[in-house]
Amino acid sequence: MGKTLFDKVWDAHVVKSIEGGRDVIYIDRHLIHEVTSPQAFNGLRKRGLQIAHLDKITATADHNVPTINQHLPIAEPMSQKQVSALINNCKEFGVELYGLGHENQGIVHVIGPELGITKPGLTMVCGDSHTSTHGAFGNIAFGIGTSQVEQVMATQCLILDRPKTMRITIDGLLDPGVGAKDIILYIISKLTAAGGTGYFIEYAGSTIQALSMEERMTICNMSIEMGARGGLIAPDDKTYSYMEGRPHVPKGEEWKDAIRYWNNLVSDTDAVFDQEYSYKAENIGPMVTYGTNPGMGIKVDELIPQEGSSPSFDKSLQYMGFSEGQSLVGHEIQNVFIGSCTNSRIEDLRKVAAYIQGKQKAENVKVYIVPGSQKVRNQAMEEGLDVIFAEAGFQLREPGCSACLGMNEDKIPAGEYCVSTSNRNFEGRQGPGARTILASPLMAAAAAIEGKIVDVRSTLN
Question: String of b and e for 328-358 (b: at least 16 CB within 10 Å)?
């Protein structure tokens, strides 16, 4: 029997198998940030340990950083404390840090790929659930808890249960105005927020192959939102083209040797998955969420489903101020957030700029555009996207996780609606009482211009 892509990478990293069916897995790359690393560093101190492999760990500040005036001291006390702790810990233990002001600083899941740290066939971890983003390159990438962060620092290994495997195949051509964010929100709406629990998901099919690398990252990023351990996509020529020449990528003959190995990182034709699903691209439309988990999504031209008297469903609609059978088209919003590790890359910003050029945002809407890294921000400015944003009334800010989560200064006021390109719409995720509607960058841009939710397809030239 053949092997899946997941099996090939996992098996190549098993140090040994232990009783109970668990494996000791070697970790190739460890990414850290200011939120989940302080306790891990303290654990090393208490044990008198050093970091096992400094060349395999990279740190950045992203979650708690302000996105304006980053050259000034951080005003919010907890954010300042956590960022300062990261700086001090990295200095003490010798960890490479891309802090505020560094040319490589940015959201951890954006800088990994853009620097070439992320490569096919690796095992990658970070104390952040959206580490699954890196699986777009054909690797096993997943989030870990704080105690596991310490374990990887000390041993470069983890003791893990082997996940089950799932393949989701999507074939066909997407309609204009429909993109990667719509694909993954559609899948989650079909499988629910728990439909991938216990699985590592491989995405396949002609639709997935047609996506750019940045679009593939969006897909893998939200694998965790259906409960999966992670998601991955087999590497191909698009992968290699994206990677070539980046700082941490092999050069010369090593590059050629690497590609020869990476070309084997595909699921065998006779590989058997524990679960399989198939969808047609033409059935996917622009998506919006109406509830308080990413599985509560509908195509924008559909109505909120009528599910009866489920307490959790009713509670979610009450929080959002929606009702069963309601259309979201025409619903007024007050905020638009374009950013996060899901949709803050240069392609996302280009799509938004192309759509809004020559237009003005609605007066009732505040718009934040937060690039995923300093490199993305600088590139946007080199291309003149900042001018387009400014003329439309969109504020281009500095890199960070920003309004994806209520952990920094960029919070959405209570009771207000935010069309967000981020990955989660839990109660209070963007601030106490904030109401989040997840959507694609194009849908968010259209909402900003109109001041309400619209079907972006009806506004395309």
Answer: beebebbbbbbbbbbbbbbbbbbbbbebbee
Longest dimension (CA), the chain: 64
Pair of tokens at residue 197: 């629990």
Give the pLDDT of residue 310.
83
Of 394, 405, 460, nearest in space to 430 by CA: 405
DSSP assignment of 122-174: -EEEESSGGGGGGGGGSSEEEE--HHHHHHHHHHSEEEEEPPEEEEEEEES-P
Per-residue confidence band for 353, with pLDDT thresholds at 50, 70 and 90: very high
CATH, domain 5-161, list 3.40.50.150, 3.20.20.70, 3.30.499.10, 3.30.230.10: 3.30.499.10
Contacts of 31 (CB under 8 A, 6+ apart): 57, 58, 59, 60, 108, 109, 112, 117, 124, 125, 126, 128, 131
Sheet holding 164-171, edge to edge: 230-232, 199-204, 164-171, 275-280
**CATH architecture classification, 164-248+260-283:** 3-Layer(aba) Sandwich (3.40)
pLDDT value, residue 228: 98
Distance in angstroms (rounded) separating the CA atoms of residues 182 and 285:
7
Q: Where are the domains of the chain?
A: 5-161, 164-248+260-283, 287-459
**What is the average pLDDT across 260-268?**
98
Query: pLDDT class for 314, splitting at 50, 70, 90?
Result: very high
What region does 138 belong to: left with phi over 0, alpha with psi -120 to 50, or beta?
left
Q: How much is the mean pLDDT over the chain?
A: 97
Rounded Cα distance between 376 and 106, Å, is 9
CB of 365 closer than 8 Å to CB of 336: yes
Examine the pLDDT at 50 and tell me if it is beyond 90. Answer: yes
Q: For the segment 372-394, what is each residue's pLDDT rounded down to a tens digit?
A: 999 999 999 999 999 999 999 99
Query: Measured between alpha carbons, how far is 323 from 165 in angstroms, rounded to an integer?
Result: 37
The one-letter amino acid at 178: V
User: Which residue reads 């997840």 in tokens?
Assistant: 438
Q: Which CATH superfamily is domain 287-459 in?
A: Aconitase, domain 3 (3.30.499.10)
Percent of the chain with pLDDT over 90: 96
pTM: 0.97
- At 424-450, the pLDDT tens digits run 999 999 999 999 999 999 999 999 999
